[in-house]
Amino acid sequence: MSAQDQNFDKFTQKFTKNIYGTTKGEIRAAVLWRDLIPAIESLSKPKLRILDAGGGFGYLSQKLAKLGHEIVLCDISENMLEQAKAQIAASDSQLDITLVHSAIQDLSVAELGQFDLVMCHAVAEWLQDAQATLDGLRQFIKPNGLFSLMFYNKEALRFHSLVSGNLDYVAKGLKVKKKIGLTPNYPLYINDVRQWFNDWQMELVCQSGVRVINDYLKQSLPVNFDKNQLIEMELKYSQREPYLSLGRYVHFIAR
User: Fold this and answer.
1) Taking a C-beta distance cutoff of 8 angstroms, is the pair 149, 120 a contact?
2) Could you read off the pLDDT of 157-168 as tens digits, one per residue?
3) Whole-prediction pTM value?
4) Which residues pair with residue 99 across a beta bridge?
5) Are 253 and 156 in contact (CB under 8 A)?
6) What is the rounded distance in angstroms from the CA atom of residue 110 to the CA atom of residue 107?
7) End-to-end CA distance of the chain
8) Whether 62 contacts 97, CB under 8 Å
9) Per-residue pLDDT tens for 207-255?
10) Cis omega before residue 222 (within 30°)?
11) Nearest to residue 154, comparing CAs of 36, 247, 229?
């Protein structure tokens, strides 16, 4: 692991609340689940081996394990894995989840084997060399297996800053002297990531924007504003341009 890569041990509670305890977390979960289920079904196997690389406390891992799949959940944060362990123990069903405390770069195919599906969600934008790390994950994918990657979209960061009036921030190349909150260190351009998959000779079978509407909502909303309708609209427009490319995150599934 690079010294510049992020460990969320210090921010476990804040990170968990910000990601899954909010409307934006519900949108993220809805889009990812909508994308993953048909992709998984296309493999035509009742039980898959799935690697959740940098999966935190394993929100999706736990949902997939409840469907009967075998999961290896890896994270660099010991606190995140402790949270995962507690949630797995409290589950009302038996979950086949193995926890691995490790940086993604230190994982071993010899020890873990290969997987039908490798997931890496909201990790790449924290890595100093995302391309090399993601390239390394490919060795864990079985022939005809799937790679699910969700990454922070640099162009959406720019557009959100423009419509928010933060013009100086944009003029300075989206760089600040002091980083604020949980804004990732290394957001990625969509076309760059598409090119990586092309170079790896992997076919993109699914492309979605995550939060293509929510992050651009006006502060003053109609009195009849409905969160559930918002999520429906997010799902409806997430795979259409130009909305896809405005997603705060972008989700690719490649074969």
Assistant:
1) yes
2) 999 999 999 999
3) 0.92
4) 73
5) no
6) 9
7) 26
8) yes
9) 999 999 999 999 889 999 999 999 999 999 999 999 999 999 999 999 9
10) no
11) 247
